[in-house]
Amino acid sequence: MQKIIKVGMADLKIVKYPEILTTLGLGSCVGIALYDKKIQLIGLAHIMLPDSRQIKNNANKAKFADTAINLLIEEMVKEGGNRSRFVAKIAGGAQMFSFGGNSDVMKIGFRNVVATKEILGDLKVPIIAEDTGGNYGRTIEVYSDTGGLLVKTIGHGIKEI
């Protein structure tokens, strides 16, 4: 039987088949799922902010795109994953509230997605699917057998990417 393991906000976890990872309530946060098909290993990080270097209280590495992705890769390699096989799927990064003006400072969701894509690109981990942006929250499930990522939304249905 498949067991569902919850990943909290500013948290990350790694599991092998037959387990499933889920994270709830991705608004401006981004869920970053990595998958190694050969050994059916998945990792999921629920990041809140793009860059740990801009925040004084940055001890929680899972909270930031720059540190969480590196930590996720390290943990997956420790579990037998091979970096050259890793692929990524990302979801979230919504603009949950509207702000006047064109300042990017308040566009946390957008900045989280940009940072995630840049870091994965720098680390040569291909993003094979994404469901990002919009103005609605998402709950996601990542399946260790297929690497499938199920995105559940209110008012926008359920889809697998």
Brief characterization of the structure:
With 161 residues, the protein is of the alpha+beta class.
- Classify the helix fraction into a percent range: 10-25%
Mean pLDDT over the full residue set? 94
Structural class: alpha+beta
CATH architectural arrangement: 2-Layer Sandwich
> Largest sheet at a glance?
5 strands, mixed
Protein name: Probable chemoreceptor glutamine deamidase CheD
Keywords: Chemotaxis, Hydrolase
Family: Belongs to the CheD family.
Function: Probably deamidates glutamine residues to glutamate on methyl-accepting chemotaxis receptors (MCPs), playing an important role in chemotaxis.
What does this structure look like?
The chain has about 160 residues and is an alpha+beta fold. The protein has a single domain, classed as 60s Ribosomal Protein L30, Chain: A. About 20% of the residues lie in helices and about 35% in strands. The protein has 2 helices and 10 strands; from the N terminus they run βββββαβαββββ. It has helices spanning about 65-80, 110-120; strands at about 5, 10-15, 20-25, 30-35, 40-45, 85-90, 125-130, 140-145, 150, 160. The strands form 2 sheets. The chain has a 5-stranded mixed beta sheet with strand order 1-3-8-9-10, with no helix packed on it. Strands 2-5-4-6-7 form a 5-stranded mixed beta sheet, with helices on one face. The longest helix has 15 residues, at about 110-120. About 40% of the residues are buried.
